[in-house]
Amino acid sequence: MWRKCNKCGAPIFSEDVKAGDYICPKCGGYFRIHARRRIEMLADPGSFEEWEDALPVSNPLGLSGYPKKLSELQEKTGLGEAVLTGKMSMGGHETAVGVMDGRFIMGSMGRNVGEKIAKAAERATALKLPLILFCCSGGARMQEGIVSLMQMAKTAAALKRHSDAGLLFLSVLTDPTTGGVTASFAMLGDIILAEPGALIGFAGPRVIEQTIGQKLPEGFQRAEFLMEHGFVDAILPREKSREILTRLLDFHVQRGERTDGGTGDEICSQKVAWSKRMDMAEEAERQNHERIESALSLEAAGKRDMDAGQDTGREKNASGTEGQESSENLKKSKVSAWERVKLSRKQGRLTGLDYIQGIFADFTELHGDRAYGDDKAVVGGIATFHGRPVTVIAQQKGRNTKENIERNFSMPSPEGYRKALRLMKQAEKFGRPVFCFVDTPGAFCGMEAEERGQGEAIARNLFELSALKVPVLSIVIGEGGSGGALALALADEVWMMENAVYSVLSPEGFASILWKDSKRADEAAEVMKITAENLKALGVVERVIPEPEPAGKKNAEELCESLSEGFAEFLSRYGNLSGEELAAHRYERFRNM
After folding, report:
1. How far apart are CA 494 and CA 485, in angstroms?
2. Which of 545, 491, 522, 578 has its CA nearest to residue 153?
3. Do 120 and 155 contact (CB within 8 A), yes or no?
């Protein structure tokens, strides 16, 4: 009968809370709302139609206890996952809608959350509907490792197609909206609204305080802070949310209607096409799920067949050409995942500039994001490859302590990502292929990065890269840390150096969060499936570049020659495709993650 306000601590009669839109009558503080209750508050009575309720459980890391936890949460919340999607009418306007629910693993985004949001965006596109998403999340779901990170790319790509169809996307940020959700779909709305006082940020306040060693100012990363810094269009009072959202739909209703004289048969055919597209996606998803389960069971049993490993090294990659990874080298290797992590971070390892200077000619560096400054953690410019102009971009670590400080230890700020995007869009304008070298522990988490929109900058890169109309190849050469790496890795193909790692967060962070013990980082590295070999088995990367010995100046020429040959093959496969074919291929690559 009674509840306690988590803001002022006052006891409140539960019925008063429900009747008052889940707002404290004493202090005005907002309670978090269950997804179905949110729908009830907004939808015209009886108009909500749920989409995609039940999806098969995803457990790509094979964590014991995780499927059971999901089952318990499904029973407790009455939800299939952390997001509820469907169609409703509001004020007479039909719209697609998605509402995240913080009761389900803090609204974190795993494979099924990303799948539901991507399908909702695709269905809204096919039906020419606006889309409203209510965001509430702690970020990517670490229990699903790199697969959860890929959902950032998948959802951004689906929203890019929805946007290109001229349809409205309204993003409503509620408390809290953080991490990978902030760096993907949450910050891609045509109009972004936020509930009063909502916590919104790429890195959480505690992480930032630990990073900079000082107390954060009052109101930092709250909705009003983001509006003041230009990342939110307006604050959305909950009691007026239906009125304001309906008015916004009123403004855009003509954009959602057919104005080309299309017939009902055409609309029907679009729905049939969408249905076929979903069938194809579900079949690809099923096959991918079977492949992942097979890879996990092999590893768990410790029965990796060496002959099969040789066959895998020779098998054709997704583009129909033979992979170049040395299966013999991988077969002989007994290096643990944690050793790979240490090798990826090792001082003296080849940097992005080392590869650029060893592979390309006439490199001319270009600076600045044209909005705030020049981030030295990201280098980029124009070069030639076999006489052909190309754009090259790299996350750059320092070769010594002084350079590392100057380059912020390869942790880009928003202006670094915006500089990269500016160069990519310039490459598209002039028809230049793009080569990206990924090497970062993650995007910089500091006050100034949040003030300048770290999450939005990463999200915008994903959004635009998904449809870039020139070939894009990304190579993880060292550390591939979370969304900070993904912002340069939404490519036609992603390759990895043999001693590189690519993960949703660091092993230390994974162990600290999951087991409350960062000293178990070596154990976490094995569980997370972050090595090149693991990720090729999962279908996240297409090619592993062998390192007969760890990459350094001693074998730089050999490695650059190997990459150069691979780059030439990549351009022969993708260089003659149209912009539309490239964008379609890239979309399908990440859509099936």
Report:
1. 11
2. 491
3. no
